[in-house]
Amino acid sequence: MNLKSLKKAFPYTIPVLLGYLFLGSAFGILLSSKGYGPLWALIMSVTMYAGSGQFVAIGFLTSPFDLINAFVVTLMVNLRHLFYGLSLLERFKAAGKKRFYMMFSLTDETYSLLCGIKAPKEVDKHQFYCSIGFLDHIYWIISCVLGNIIGSTIPFNAKGIDFVMTALFMVIFLDQWKDSKTHIPQFVGIGISVLCLLLIGAENFLLPAMSLILICSGILKRRLEAKLA
Amino acid sequence: MTLPTHQALLIILVSAIATFLTRALPFFLFPPHKKTPTFILYLGKVLPFATIGMLLVYCLKDVSILTWSYGLPEAISLLAITAVHLWKRNILLSVGGGTLLYMFLVQVIF
Prior knowledge:
heterodimer; A: mainly alpha; 12 helices; B: mainly alpha; flat
């Protein structure tokens, strides 16, 4: 990573900055209300760097010590990340040692940016991808720690600001829509997820949805392969 | 309750490892120096499209369409984002404007 790639990456990450300021500080406030100070917010945001994962971890930190439960539940909560890796195998292939940081920093938001944008020609693409993950990581750390320190004193009515992530995913979805020759994978993703949500409920729909998406993609392989090339 | 420092650190360590595993596993299973199976390569092309759709549904999973406010603030904001984005194609404008509209809707209207 260098200054040039960070500068190029910065404008793309502004929506994530806004979203993380909200989500991260919400996490920081909750953590401090459970008796864990800013140093804990720092350690967790640096090492875990996961929105839902960190919220769930607050539960482990406030109940009787159970390492196995923490491990298994965190795996389950973050299972959707498996798809991100599969999507980016080719893109990260030639990134050398940077790959490890790029894997580590694959949050929902970083992933969606990597899916939705192309690296500008003037910068090395791996530097650019890495810079996006790094900037997002920095925003996240600052927001978690800041929320932990000053969070509950903010007078501003932030209700609804968490919609910024939904808005970001919607925009990426639209860009993908315009850029692709076939919209079948998008229908599959939305359709199966909605179906599983309605049938199974908000708590547990993701794993069945992921399995069905894999199966459907397999069935549609011959039809889709030529169009996706 | 809070855990003793060493137990809390262990919990965080284990959670961090689990998180990293879910992100890194595909890269470890299919390393760059080995030939990736063609089916996995195909999944790599098709999944980004399906996954963003899934993520969108995941974000909206707690919206109740049968009780007040019937998912209206979400629907209105997403439609507005779609219109603005197809018109201007400016990520910041679409995301920022859509979020402000949503905040206005849930704070003032609904």
